[in-house]
């Protein structure tokens, strides 16, 4: 976590008064920036992912593989954001939750981060198959549903194994104040490489390969939803790159060049890029759920059920969505042109 840098290590910053002063400025910055970021991501992520999870479980029948993934994705993001209040408190004060809680939260935080990234990869591959093998995919829905549930179980197990090093090496340390931390130098390069591969390079490769084929297919499609689908694809890839690439590049530098730990500017880079990476938990509900017509229809049902919307207004929304959905289904290349209808 970025807040681990919220202490002054005289071993790193003893070269000059300017360096110590610069690091003090960094500490003041992190005490304000980190808690604010954690609170924003926690509130937005909690509301968005809870809403997606409620609608997916109670209002939306799991008719295809993407629906299965869209239950596990908000669940992983939801558990992930629920660890942030602990880190927010620790960044302002110190770690007061004990060693067991430290190991547990480090494990939960890491496990759900990689679970979320792997599920995003599966959603990308599923959309790819829905385009290039539309007929075969439709005829094998039952088998695909079973495989999807098995894949989700494997994803959770793999993420749990990948997070074990953080649990093993995580401890409460005293460095000017109590912090919950783990040391990268105690974790093998193989483990760090595996984590970076699962957390960034694998999803990135899947997006590049799968969405390239999807875009090529859409360009030859006649459906009027082609341009909307292309915009959504570019948005998904752009958000992923903008939120995940900076932090992973910084992590890559950190694993190869330890001398950067002595640079205050590098600590700024870690803090800011990691905070940006957390935005993924807030944006996933928008990118992978709210863009779907079926999901928006069920959202209005939920709003009506809790009494926040007049019945007529809700009915109008449902009718509009149903009519539009029927129109989409009637077009050629339905899998390609309405694949984001979810």
UniProtKB/TrEMBL annotation:
- At the top level of its lineage, which domain of life is listed? Eukaryota
- The answer to keyword Cell wall biogenesis/degradation applying to this record is no
- Give the molecular function GO annotations: C-C chemokine binding; C-C chemokine receptor activity; C-X-C chemokine receptor activity; coreceptor activity
Matching entries from InterPro entries are given as: CCR1-9-like, Chemokine_CXCR6, Chemokine_rcpt, GPCR_Rhodpsn, GPCR_Rhodpsn_7TM
Q: So where does this one cross the membrane? A: 32-59, 68-88, 108-129, 150-169, 198-218, 230-247, 267-291
Example GO biological process: cell chemotaxis
Subcellular location, record wording:
Cell membrane
Q: What membrane topology does the UniProt entry give?
A: Multi-pass membrane protein
Q: Which UniProt keywords apply?
A: Cell membrane, Disulfide bond, G-protein coupled receptor, Glycoprotein, Membrane, Receptor, Transducer, Transmembrane, Transmembrane helix
* Domain called G-protein coupled receptors family 1 profile: residue spans: 48-288
Gene Ontology CC, one term: external side of plasma membrane
Q: Pfam families from the entry?
A: 7tm_1 (PF00001)
Q: Report the family membership.
A: Belongs to the G-protein coupled receptor 1 family.
What does it do? Answer: Receptor for the C-X-C chemokine CXCL16. Used as a coreceptor by SIVs and by strains of HIV-2 and m-tropic HIV-1.
| Name under which the protein is recorded | C-X-C chemokine receptor type 6
């Amino acid at each position: 976590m970025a807040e681990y840098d919220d202490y002054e290590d005289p071993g790193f910053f003893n070269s000059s008064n300017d360096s110590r002063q610069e690091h003090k400025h960094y500490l003041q910055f992190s005490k304000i920036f980190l808690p604010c970021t954690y609170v924003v991501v926690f509130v937005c992520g909690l509301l968005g992912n809870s809403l997606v999870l409620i609608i997916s479980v109670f209002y939306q029948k799991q008719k295809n593989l993407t629906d299965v993934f869209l239950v596990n994705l908000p669940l992983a993001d939801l558990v992930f954001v629920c660890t942030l209040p602990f880190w927010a408190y620790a960044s302002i004060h110190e770690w007061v939750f004990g060693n067991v809680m430290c190991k547990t939260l480090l494990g939960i935080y890491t496990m759900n981060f990689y679970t979320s990234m792997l599920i995003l990869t599966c959603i990308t591959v599923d959309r790819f198959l829905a385009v290039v093998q539309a007929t075969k995919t439709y005829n094998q829905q039952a088998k695909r549903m079973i495989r999807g549930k098995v894949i989700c179980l494997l994803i959770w197990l793999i993420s749990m194994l990948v997070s074990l090093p953080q649990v093993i090496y995580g401890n409460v340390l005293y460095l000017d104040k109590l912090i919950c931390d783990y040391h990268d130098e105690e974790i093998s390069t193989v483990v760090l490489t595996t984590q970076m591969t699962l957390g960034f390079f694998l999803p990135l490769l899947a997006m590049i390969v799968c969405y390239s084929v999807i875009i090529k297919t859409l360009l030859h499609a006649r459906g009027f939803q082609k341009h909307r689908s292309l915009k959504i694809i570019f948005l998904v890839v752009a958000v992923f790159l903008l939120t995940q690439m900076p932090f992973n590049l910084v992590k890559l530098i950190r694993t190869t060049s330890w001398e950067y730990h002595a640079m205050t500017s590098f600590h700024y880079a870690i803090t800011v890029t990691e905070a940006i990476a957390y935005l993924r938990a807030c944006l996933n509900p928008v990118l992978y759920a709210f863009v779907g017509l079926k999901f928006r229809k069920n959202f209005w049902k939920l709003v009506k059920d809790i009494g926040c919307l007049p019945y007529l207004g809700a009915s109008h929304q449902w009718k509009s969505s149903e009519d539009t959905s029927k129109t989409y289904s009637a077009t050629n290349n339905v899998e390609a042109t309405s694949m984001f209808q979810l």
